[in-house]
Amino acid sequence: MTTLQLTFLIVVALIAQLAMFAAIAFYRQWQSFTDLKRQLAEWEGHQEGYVPQERKLPPPIKPLWLECREFQVQRKVVEDRNHTVCSFYLIPMDEKPLPSFKPGQYLTFQLDLEDADTRASKSLVRCYSLSDEPHLEYYRVTIKKVSAGKASSFFHDKVQAGDILQVKAPAGHFYLDTAGTGPIVLIGSGIGITPVLSMLNASLHQTPPREIWFYYGVRNGEEVIMKEHLNQLAKQHNHLHLYICYSQPTEQEVKGVDYHHAGRIDITLLRLTLPLKPHHFYVCGPKPMMETLVPDLRAWGVLDHYIHYEAFGPASLTKHEKSRSALGEEATTSAELTVTFSKSGKMFPWKKTATSLLEFAEDHGIAIDSGCRAGSCGTCMTPLESGEVEYHQRPDADLKPGNCLLCISVPKTNLTLKA
Questions:
Q1: Which of 12, 40, 143, 204 is buried deepest, with most CB atoms within 10 A?
Q2: Which of 369, 404, 373, 363 is closest to 386 using CA atoms?
């Protein structure tokens, strides 16, 4: 074979290879374009008055175990410079296999706290998000200490390695669809990083790998947690796009070195950094961020079923408003609703501004035991003597017949509660 023939064959092979790469790139781009075109068509249908079928609530998730199960604290790890965030690694005392969970779910803790005045033991229920992917050996929760938080202070000040805690099975409807393959956007602000961190760690083991955009917002480096872990993941996985955002960076912190973006996580940042694709958004953060970001995503054209968020955060901002307006319409066409507390001997007209029966009771000085305020722990379960309630979301707790969960419900008719 002559040199000219060999050169010709090499050129032909290179051209064929380039053509193959171009065809693959075109196919992938066409798939993205088709998905985007479908999403835009759906959105235009909404704009023109098209009303889609009402989305059904997901079926209830069968608990991995009933009641409480004993877990020992294997390790306690401080995660930030301010020593206000700790991770707790929990292993089952019965040494039975540890069931998996859906990334984004949480654990419910039954805590026995000592009353500072009476020295008597008082039961307290709290829920904390699992902050890691499922493991066979342990569960991990990461908890921020809040100055007025009895439970978080108990975890930080009292709970140590070797202690035994009463834990209910993982629960919650805010979780990642691990069967999906499309691009996802994970957004966590402050301690809201915990459920989306679980989603991130789980997603990176998927095959084929899915495109991930991860946004994490804190005030500055004093509050950031697991930064080295996030940076290491970004180096190892080229399909992970990491944005650490400092809203108030210090003078010593350098953009591009210590963080990626100066400012809060908002719709402007997302529009400037995200490619034009139909992403699924998973969002968890403090109330001010949720009150702006979730509506802004909708205004940008993201459909509701592409936006997922924590039930005790933004769901209370959006679904409650819908319930208030619906109740307001009913109230204008019928008599005002009333809520009677039979044990207390009190009756009040329902306030349309109340987000839940639990809030309504507390506003009127009716003492109701409560825990998670998300329909999971069952602490606020109250006998319903007459009337009907309407739920903002599907309860995770097992409802006893003739009872209702006050934290996630509002009256549908006149009510009499045994409280």
A1: 143
A2: 404
